[in-house]
Write a structure and sequence with these properties.
The structure holds 3 protein chains of 3 kinds. Chain A has 5 helices and 5 strands; from the N terminus they run ββαβββαααα. Chain A is α+β, with helices and mostly antiparallel strands. Chain A has a 5-stranded mixed sheet, sandwiched between helices. Classes of the chains: A alpha+beta, B alpha+beta, C alpha+beta. The interface between B and C is medium-sized, with 30 and 26 residues.
Chain lengths: 162, 769, 286
């Protein structure tokens, strides 16, 4: 089995890397591209810890073969927020003391970011469904919902300030 | 957008400061074991027994060894140091001649890629002779049941007892049946007479299956040896010193030759308090001469982790018509899996010690079965025990027409009352917590709320109270003054609950600086003072006390140096904003930075300030929690919707309220999972029928409302600033609270967990209670 | 996962050529949401995996004349598709229930059907709407009614050298409405303990066609034909619905497993049939 060339865009940068055909997108991001933010919590699409964006949509990267990302745009937690600055969601999570063990957090933030891009003013129920594909065992979700709601407000006022 | 900055008015204890590792976690930069990738890394996989009980006749690894990319294939024969009879699960590195649970490791592979390692497992040929298995604990307890432990194996309960710090009288009668590995009995008075004099006798059996702790990060360890024979383990663990000791004992390596580095732990909750994969990974690393990493798959975690035990409690109570308690009789059976390790004592204590029973007969049995052996899941055995007693008390109140809170309050223990083991209850907030939750509007308006149910949904409100005695473990800490006047605190405590910020707040408050001047370092086993598990709700209580004492020691040293420099008395000095001045003479002072620099200068006569403490503890600080649920039941499908959930908890002193709330909410949701959806379901052959997160159901954000938290502070006599342990009480009350709410909604009393929609719907259809 | 060869065809013709040569050792992958978990568990061990993500033909949704859904259309696309309103709403509802959003953005209707788990959510509405499966093979294309597509647990009529290309859903006529409901212990990330799709078509206040399809109560999705017959030609009154709901149980032959007992499943068939028929009636009458 020869390696194949995966060409795609990751966090805004063009990428060309050799991957084994039998590895998942999650494996390729973590092992071949050094982006260890997305995590493997279950490997079967049942926990959301591996959530990344592909062409703007949240996907379980443990269920995609790496080569299925060819020609597509991938965004991981490392691409959320800037080098010096945090995305409003990240900032809200920090201030509300959301992360405990932290393992689910990259996936939750990617799910929340996609939610807010599609629905800038989500209700509490919509927020809960927006992250329902992300299991967290430490926090019980309450502070996450508060933080996401606050970040939505911040993003909305940023937009109207422009 | 601004990054989080500590505000200038931050002081110390009691302030809601977000954890300082937040920015690293929200940017995905924190490293877990699976993220560390040294050069030459090999990947380990384990071949596991497909039978619950079988003799291993032969293993042929030749084809596996021949697969290109495979660097090592091991069976027990290749590890001569292994004890023939493994006293603990950790010692059963690879099964020697018998597999005692489905999923027990039988062979190990290290390969260049995980896929190659997987294929190598397929090529290992094992011949098994299947043996009869003991799966159901009630059958396993009987004489003649297929034996689980090798004859002569001790039931190793040392860690289990340390975790709970409960003293209990061991039963005099020897075990009659071969799979009863621990038993105990506590009695007082004449229960038969008590029952005879009762007007209301209630007898029920409560059942809780094994549940998995559900941490998102599976067990993971990276092992590497250096040329001097030093083993380094990067481990996802709740206790690096414990891991070191276990690996030392299992593999026969001196502790000084092992360094355990506790990497960020993606959740433990008691599932990572024991060594599991570290020994085999260490051996693979030795044999290959390369770093080897083993990360369990989720499937392996569910099949062969270390879950919470299955518990069956037969409970019988007798009370008088006016609610006077007469007698309680309980038999608790704890299914510990293939190795002993359940905290048997806890159940007996809590079943009989929450309320004042004049006579009691409490029997407990730990039973071994051919299933994966257990560890703890926060407050081991307490959620199951409180499920029984709090459901039972509610039922008694309901039957007698008594107010459920008044009935509990009337009989609830307080400080000084004897527990069933004769020891007096330490100061605790049980009454305050119960009173506080009863004041909540959701409780006061429950009848109106229930009556407003519509669309055929049935509403109910229920509550329950539970507690945890609080763990104790000796520990140490150091506090060092830096040349710039900041403080460096060193402990060995793995920070899994956000305790580091709280420790920083304690150090800051005790020494006299702001929290942002303090940095906590969690040292590995080479550099840190001895410390125990991050478990047992004892981190703040014990490590916090050590940090407090070390900070006070450092403060004393600092003041002594300043007194000498300023030629003043210690008692005339005050420390404000990083400077020690003589009271009333603001110009006569010396900064902490100056003192710190002097302690580090060539030829200086000023010693470096190094505060130290290494306390041991004897006084526990129980923590109580009460939880209330308002829920709706769809009577046709049995689906439950939780509208509101309140957690009230006595934490003694909330060192960091954000952290405390997080623990209360997280523990409560774990408790709700035990109540409603979770259970490891084994079939009659000992095979796990739900080895994936699709069928092992943890609650999602869509299944839950916002959880309301109410912090109560009844200071503990010995805890730092009066603090008590926080981590365990919140996992305890929800199953009983939910059961009580479901009964309020539907009339059905469920006594088996989880209270799934099926159980609720069929209870209504069949009219069974 | 164990190792395998990966082939990336750019057209349906290329894909069929590969299947003709290596179909017996190959598995098609679109979303991977059923395939990859089974490969990771070792249940499936294909030597070759064929990726469908480069094939345009199987990704379209079209409702010009009746409804055509490409096999590789994702559950999320179906969930939000404006083409799946009105009488086709039950298809969108079933798609909305699959797993989680992270799964729905990958999972395809074709994958859901070809994996052919008894619990496949998108099967019952397609059966109830009398969809046809368009199957491409070496000899061209053939059509199979959805109700005949499934032959057993994880088995379909597909030969190793064939692939599902499209679903064709005939327009059910004016005054038709349907709903899909399922019971799961959790609100997300879950799998149907029982699923029911009901589709009612009305004329002059009477039911001209009733279709009720059940998931997770037999090795394949099944139609509750006795219940259907009890409704056709009648006014759909609450009593008629109750009668049909009771009759629907006859079509169910559920097993008892760790997801649910046979007793509970039969009970749910009745409850969910009653509820979906009630909603289908309201939607058909609107």
């Amino acid at each position: 089995m020869a390696k194949q060339i995966l060409q795609c865009t990751v966090n805004g940068e063009p990428v060309e890397v050799l991957v084994q055909p039998y590895v998942t997108l999650l494996d390729a991001l973590r092992e071949d591209l050094g982006l260890t933010g997305p995590k493997e919590g279950c490997g079967t699409g049942d926990c959301g810890a591996c959530t990344v964006h592909v062409d703007g949509k949240v996907v379980a990267s443990c269920l995609m073969l790496a080569m299925q990302a060819r020609g597509r745009k991938v965004r991981t937690i490392e691409g959320l927020g800037g080098v010096e600055t945090l995305h409003p969601l990240q900032d809200a999570f920090v201030r509300h003391g959301v992360p405990q063990c932290g393992f689910c957090i990259p996936g939750v933030l990617m799910a929340a970011a996609a939610l807010l891009e599609e629905n800038p003013r989500p209700s509490e129920e919509q927020i809960r469904y927006g992250i329902a594909g992300n299991l967290c065992r430490c926090t019980g979700y309450t502070k996450m919902v508060t933080a996401i709601s606050e970040a939505a407000g911040m993003l909305a006022s940023q937009r109207s300030a422009r | 957008m601004s990054t989080m900055k500590t505000t200038r008015d931050v002081k110390g204890v009691g302030v809601a400061i977000p954890r300082p590792d937040g920015p690293e976690k929200v940017t995905g930069r924190v490293q877990y074991v699976g993220d560390i990738k040294p050069k030459g890394l090999l990947h380990a996989k384990l071949l596991r027994s497909p039978h619950a009980h079988a003799k291993i006749v032969s293993i042929d690894t030749s084809a596996a060894r021949a697969l290109p990319g495979v660097r090592a294939v091991l069976t027990a024969k290749d590890i001569p140091h292994l004890k023939k009879k493994a006293p603990t699960r950790a010692h059963a590195v690879l099964a020697i001649d018998r597999a005692v649970f489905m999923g027990q490791p039988v062979a190990a592979v290290a390969a260049d890629e995980p896929s190659i390692a997987e294929e190598a497992l397929d090529l290992i040929k094992v011949e098994y002779q299947v043996l009869p298995a003991s799966i159901d604990p009630l059958k396993a307890m009987q004489p003649g049941a297929p034996p689980v432990a090798d004859a002569g194996t001790e039931a190793d309960t040392s860690e289990a007892l340390a975790h709970s710090a409960v003293a209990i009288a061991k039963s005099e009668a020897p075990a009659k049946a071969v799979n009863i590995s621990q038993q105990a009995r506590l009695q007082r008075g004449d229960v038969a007479k008590g029952f005879a004099e009762s007007d209301h006798v209630l007898e029920k059996t409560y059942r809780v299956p094994m549940v998995h702790q559900g941490y998102l990060e599976p067990h993971a360890v990276l092992a590497e040896w250096d040329r001097n024979g030093l083993l380094t383990l990067w481990a996802s663990t709740q206790g690096s010193f414990n891991t070191r000791s276990e690996v030392s004992d299992v593999l026969g390596i001196p502790e000084n030759q092992i360094r355990v580095i506790p990497v960020e732990c993606g959740g433990g909750f008691g599932g990572k308090i024991r060594a599991l994969c570290e020994p085999i990974t260490a051996v693979l690393a030795k044999v290959t001469g390369r770093p080897v990493r083993y990360v369990m798959t989720r499937r392996e975690e569910l099949i062969a982790g270390m879950p919470a035990p299955q518990v069956i409690i037969r409970l019988k109570t007798g009370v008088k018509r006016d609610g006077t308690l007469m007698a309680i009789d309980a038999e608790t059976i704890i299914d510990s899996g293939a190795f002993s390790g359940a905290v048997l004592a806890v159940s007996a204590v809590f079943i009989g010690s929450m309320y004042k029973w004049p006579s009691f007969d409490l029997r407990g049995f730990e039973v071994l079965t051919h299933k994966p052996s257990v560890a703890a899941y926060r407050a081991p055995v307490a959620p199951q025990t409180i499920f029984a007693i709090e459901s039972h008390m509610e039922q008694i109140a309901r039957d007698l027409g008594l107010d459920p809170v008044e009935f509990r309050m009337r009989h609830l223990i307080q400080e000084g009352d004897p527990m069933v083991n004769g020891q007096p209850w330490q100061s605790n907030g049980a009454k305050q917590v119960l009173a506080r939750i009863a004041e909540h509007p959701h409780w006061k308006t429950r009848k109106q709320w229930v009556a407003a149910g519509k669309d055929g949904r049935r509403r109910g409100v229920g509550l329950a109270l539970g507690g945890w005695l609080g763990g104790l473990q000796p520990t140490g800490a150091t506090v060092r003054l830096n040349p710039d006047g900041s403080l460096a605190v060193l402990t060995g405590q793995v920070d899994i609950a956000g305790t580091n910020i709280a420790l920083a707040q304690i150090a800051a408050s005790a020494y006299g600086v702001d929290t942002d001047q303090v940095r906590i370092t969690t040292g590995d086993t080479d550099v840190a003072p001895m410390t125990g598990l991050s478990a047992g709700s004892k981190t703040i209580y014990t490590v916090g006390a050590a940090v407090l004492q070390a900070a006070e020691d450092a403060r004393r040293q600092t003041f002594e140096i300043a007194a000498k420099e300023l030629e003043a008395s210690i008692h005339d000095l005050e420390l404000v904003d990083g400077k020690l001045t003589v009271r009333g003479m603001p110009d006569k002072g010396i900064t902490l930075a100056t003192i710190g620099k002097k302690g580090n200068l060539y030829m200086s006569k000023t010693p470096p300030v190094l505060g130290k403490a290494n306390p041991a503890f004897s006084q526990q600080a129980p923590g109580f929690a009460a939880q209330l649920a308002r829920l709706e039941v769809d009577p046709d499908t049995g689906e439950v919707t939780i509208h509101d959930f309140v957690v009230v908890q006595d934490v003694g002193k909330a060192i960091n309220p954000i952290g405390v709330e997080g623990q209360m909410q997280g523990g409560a949701v774990q408790s709700l999972g035990i109540a409603l959806t979770e259970g490891l379901l084994f079939d009659d052959s000992g095979r796990l029928t739900n080895p994936s997160l699709l069928d092992y159901r943890k609650l999602t954000a869509a299944d839950l409302p916002n959880l309301e938290t109410i912090i109560v502070e009844v200071p503990s006599p010995a805890g730092p600033f009066g603090a008590r342990g926080v981590g365990e009480p919140p996992i305890i009350p929800a199953p009983a609270a939910i059961a009580n709410a479901i009964q309020d909604a539907t009339g059905a009393r469920l006594t088996e967990l989880p209270m799934s929609p099926e159980r609720i719907a069929l209870a209504l259809v069949n009219g069974t209670h | 996962m164990r190792r395998f060869d990966l082939v990336l065809p750019n057209s349906l013709e290329d894909c069929l050529k590969i299947l003709a040569e290596r179909g017996t050792q190959a598995k098609l992958v679109a979303g991977g949401t059923d395939l990859l978990p089974q490969m990771k568990n070792g249940v499936l061990r294909p030597a070759v995996v064929v990726d469908l993500s480069g094939i345009a033909r199987v990704r379209r949704v079209d409702n010009g004349n009746g409804l055509r859904i490409g096999a590789a259309v994702t559950a999320r696309e179906l969930e939000v598709s404006p083409a799946l309103r009105g009488p086709y709403l039950a298809i969108a509802e079933s798609a909305a229930m699959v797993g989680s959003l992270q799964v729905r953005n990958l999972a395809t209707v074709g994958g859901n059907l070809c994996n052919a788990a008894p619990s496949a959510d998108m099967a019952p509405p397609l059966v109830a709407l009398e969809a046809q499966a368009v199957i491409a093979g070496p000899g061209g294309e053939r059509r199979v009614p959805m109700a005949d597509f499934f032959t057993g647990v994880r088995q379909t009529v597909l030969a190793p050298n064939e692939m599902l290309v499209e679903l064709v859903v005939p327009a059910p006529g004016a005054h038709s409405g349907g709903q899909y409901l399922r019971h799961t212990p959790r609100r997300e990330l879950d799998i149907a303990v029982v699923g029911v799709a009901s589709q009612l078509t009305l004329a002059d206040g009477r039911c001209t066609r009733a279709r009720i399809a059940l998931a997770s109560v037999a090795p394949t999705p099944v139609r509750a034909t006795a219940a259907e017959r009890s409704l056709e030609g009648q006014a759909v009154t609450p009593e008629a619905i109750e009668r049909a709901a009771a009759l629907a149980i006859e079509a169910a032959r559920p097993i008892s497993d760790q997801r649910g007992s046979a007793e509970f499943r039969k009970h749910l068939v009745r409850v969910l049939t009653r509820r979906t028929l009630t909603t289908a009636l309201a939607r058909a009458s609107a």
